[in-house]
Here is the input.
Amino acid sequence: MHRILVLVGAGLLVAGCSYVDFERPVARNYLNDLAEMWSDPERPPPQASKQVPSSAALGVAFARWRQSVGPDRAEYRIGAGDVVKVTVLVRPRNVEDFGLELAVSPDGISLPLLGKVQVAGLSASQAAEKLTKLYGKEYYRDPVVIVAVSEFGSKRVVVTGAVVKPGTITLRTNETTLIEALLFAGGLKEPAGDKVLISRAVAGASDTPQLRTITVNLARLVKSFDMVENVAILPGDAVHVVPARMKAFSVLGFVSRPGCYELTEDGSVGVLDAIARAGGLTSPARSERTYLIRKTPQGRKRYPVDLPAIVAGKTSDIPIQSGDVIIVRTSSPVRVLGGLLQAVGLKGFMPGL
Here is the structure.
């Protein structure tokens, strides 16, 4: 009988030792805990600051671009969807004969006496010169014709992704630059990624439009001011600012709501904040047995976190980085008890273990 009790006790002890709270078995934890008692706990090194492209940096890049190229641009070319104002003055006193605002259609604009006249593809000055010749040929003696674009609508670009105001923007130039298109969309929305994708329809070998994608390094543009990345955006283009990947951390072990949580900005959340997001510690938790696991170039590393010292202000909190895992352990006797209850199928009777 004594031998049977020893075997049963040994079996239960093994079952208890095999019960883990996202960490090592009990026997190995004892050795690890003893080692940590005789050494100063190592803190993870601070993370190197990584700035995401921002709207402020975008404005600085725009200013640098304007200084490098100057304000000169080709005159805007009228297109279907624009509205133009046509004014005809009669000499010698330049009295206005008529002034009309006309929508430009693919067939042109409808003018008194002339009927349909094609102006798409012409600048305002070229359209005025054309109409001056047509009116002066049969209807007016030496007329003065003025053409101005009053509403822009023929050249549109779609901007989506990590921008403040995604949607369609209307260009007032024949083409624009990537920086300008992003500023027209309200600037970058934090956090933007390091990449912009530009989709463009181009003529294929058989004149069938084919989709071409241009990839732009946004970080190189707004941080290094590499204007090679400030590509021309053409009407009909679709610009997509790829958002930054979601940053997240996990809290496991003896907390009320273990799971994965979003980290909006690296360094803005500490271990205490992370545990608070997870609902705080449960009753079996041992606050002094909290660990942070972080990926390093040398592999995953485990750092002890002294929560009582942080709460007491004796040491500073540890900023959380994306990918961190926080594990809150309990005492070894409680872990053994939990393992024993689990082995005999009674663990559900003691919540929290």
Remarks:
- The longest helix spans residues 2-17.
- Residues 11-21, 23-27, 348-353 have pLDDT under 50 and may be disordered.
- The chain has three domains: 55-75+154-243, 83-151, 247-335.
